[in-house]
Design brief:
Helix 5 crosses helix 9. The protein is an alpha+beta fold. It contains twelve helices and 16 strands. It is 37% helix and 25% strand. The protein has a seven-stranded mixed β-sheet, with helices on both faces. The chain has a five-stranded mixed β-sheet with strand order 4-5-7-16-8, covered by helices on one side. The protein folds into two domains: 143 residues, 3-Layer(aba) Sandwich (Aminopeptidase), CATH 3.40.630; 162 residues, Gcn5-related N-acetyltransferase (GNAT) (Aminopeptidase), CATH 3.40.630. A hairpin with a 3-residue loop joins strand 12 and strand 13.
Length: 348
């Protein structure tokens, strides 16, 4: 048996994606294009590693190097992704990829390796730990594209909200530009006190996945854009990923309308799984997704730490950043959009 660790290139991307597709725990976030989008859109180095055994891929490990004076240094699998961590065919592939990743961290002077696995895969392994469940993901099956059938899958109270939104004379535009979608997203996160990701990242994702993303722009009856959504999808799953909106969106239940329209369109395409994504436990988004009838799946990210390293805490609610959040909410939107991407590119 001959094992060799290699770095993903454009030439090996097709083989990488084929391995991810056939692996039982592979996700859209593991796809090769994620590397190239994050490098182009956020300026990070992404050493995506894979193992070949006698010419066949037996493991992959997507990685991103974060080097930030404000938010710390870490090796992440992988940034801007809900899911990450390695995919392996055997223990030998897992061990050799773990060792190669930690060598990259050590060479870069980084003492933190964040592994975004759904469940820990290094339980009891020296140097690895998990802080417990701080967030969950929400995944549920989709019925056919018939409106009535879809509505019946939604709990009664939320169904009433969706029905109301369907009568609000909202319009869903499926052909907006990335800039239009981004503009509402930027306004939304500024209102939450969070720096916005770079527009270049949105554009890079759209370029890397031209046949696997959907853009939505929701307009009020007067033609004003009030909500937007950037989603990813493949043949099995649709992932609403970057949602934005104005303060007027709530008046029309525009987000409820937007997500229902996405469910309907995805079901019509034959997609049978809706991945509502990650939310922190006991937050508004967490409750919103449960109201739709989605049950949370705990996310137990795990960390490998050097002896002198500490678990990072980038939560906006932590004391370190709480004051920054308050200030950020008051920034004029053009100012927030100018300086936000320089900070947010380290927060994915």
């Amino acid at each position: 048996m001959t094992l060799a660790v290699k770095h993903l290139t454009r030439e090996s991307a097709e083989a990488w994606d084929a391995y991810v597709a056939q692996h039982g725990t592979g996700t859209f976030c593991h796809r090769a294009g994620w590397k190239f989008a994050v490098e182009a859109g956020a300026g990070h180095s992404c050493p995506y590693l894979y193992v070949e055994e006698d010419g066949e891929i037996t493991g992959v490990l997507p990685l991103t190097l974060r080097r930030s004076a404000l938010f710390g240094r870490a090796l992440v699998s992988s940034m801007f992704a809900v899911y990450g961590g390695g995919l392996y065919s055997n223990e030998a592939a897992k061990q050799i990829l773990d060792d190669a990743a930690w060598q990259i961290a050590e060479d870069a002077g980084i003492g933190v390796f964040e592994n975004r696995t759904i469940s820990p895969v290094h339980c009891g392994v020296e140097g690895w730990s998990s802080p417990g469940v701080k967030a969950a993901t929400f995944i549920r099956g989709l019925e056919g594209g018939d409106e009535d059938a879809l509505l019946l899958t939604i709990p009664r109270k939320q169904r009433a909200v969706v029905r109301k939104s369907l009568k609000a004379e909202l319009v869903c535009n499926w052909a907006p530009t990335v800039r239009q979608v981004y503009a509402l997203y930027a306004e939304s996160v500024r209102n939450l006190g969070t720096p916005v990701f770079p527009l270049k990242l949105f554009e890079a994702f759209a370029a890397e996945f031209p046949d696997n993303h959907l853009l939505q722009l929701i307009k009020a009856p007067d033609g004003t854009a009030v909500a937007s959504l950037f989603s990813f999808y493949d043949e099995k799953t649709v992932l609403p990923y970057y949602a934005g909106g104005t303060t007027e969106a709530r008046r029309y239940n525009a987000h409820d309308f937007m997500y229902f329209e996405l469910m309907r369109r995805a079901a019509q395409k034959g997609i049978r799984q809706f991945d509502f994504g990650r939310s922190k436990v006991d937050t508004g988004p967490y409750a919103f997704k449960k109201n739709w009838g989605f049950e949370p799946t705990p996310l137990e990210y795990e960390y490998r730490l050097a002896e002198d390293a500490e678990l990072p805490d980038l939560s906006p609610q932590s004391g370190k950043y709480a004051a920054l959040v308050k200030v950020w909410k008051r920034l004029p939107l053009p100012v927030a959009n100018l300086i936000g991407p320089m900070l947010a590119r380290h927060l994915g």
